[in-house]
């Protein structure tokens, strides 16, 4: 196994960039400016959000041309991705687009010793970084670099598509809306199912002036940790439909009261992960542990925003308890803590959070999710396996190495379909070793 891993690392390191071009909208757009709002601004000191999709088969050169042609068309609607970050005369950040800007960066690369099945079978994600651009690049650099960079890599038997999106201008919902729309055009559609709703100030009008510079000691490593920090490991866990149903059934079998609202699939899986990660960390009973979820607020704000709202419309919801309480109680205890925090995050709570932030803006760093945290980003509701450009569904979807820290979790629609869910977790190496041996976490009978 160690030899296989070594050979794979060697193949990944043989990724060679062949060319770099830029793609602009296929029609004249003119000058456009769009103010970043309170929901966007906290993410300026995050790193670019990286996604990797890999596909089997196809002629690489034809695929590249088809993708570029489709990109020219889709950027007519999603032109903000072809722009840059800027500031107005009062120092308020905005997205700026002009026809003379260079547009989206497209890199073409080759790694023809690497097979799709090798990527699909890999349970670690750290070895993918040469397939995705902008490792360790802060969103703030969008002032002078593209807001979207795409790397298309020719594999032995397919194509790897690595994308780096500037997280200051869009969240996961907008990311996958764009990807599905691009794929729809590439499959031959004349129009997309839902054009992006670009009026961010409909969600928030407050103008916040920020004086931002780069952090004094930006994290040097693309894995999200310095040399002095504990070593992190990333692992990909697959939970089948049967396993998800079993987890949900167990959490709901001991409801706090007859009037209690059933726990959702998300709440059930979230507490399953939270409990088992906390156990693997070997915390003292009195140690605090934080659960954080980046919640979509499109339907929570007043007035509600459309699903096609393009930008960030997420907020972090935090909840905390003692490790001893979380582990000594049945799983419905933790699920109830999560459920209450999510349900309490209504329009009034969002408004209060926004006002508080606007009065004293705090730019998050990607690791500010709390002590001994489990922080969930992404969602199994995103139809990531529907991103079919005309040569079939992806064989796999992964996140890159940016914005990783101890306790970061990404949830994806399961490759096996149905109610299955794929879970990417980043943990300290020692904790991960214990989690990998935890049969109850893995749902092994």
UniProtKB/TrEMBL annotation:
Gene3D superfamilies: Chloramphenicol acetyltransferase-like domain. Keywords: Acyltransferase, Transferase. Pfam families: Transferase. InterPro entries: CAT-like_dom_sf, Sec_Metabolite_Acyltrans. Coiled coil: none annotated. Signal peptide: none annotated. It comes from the Eukaryota. GO terms for molecular function: acyltransferase activity. PANTHER family: BAHD ACYLTRANSFERASE DCR, FAMILY REGULATORY PROTEIN, PUTATIVE (AFU_ORTHOLOGUE AFUA_3G14730)-RELATED. Belongs to the plant acyltransferase family. This is BAHD acyltransferase DCR. It comes from Gossypium mustelinum (Cotton).
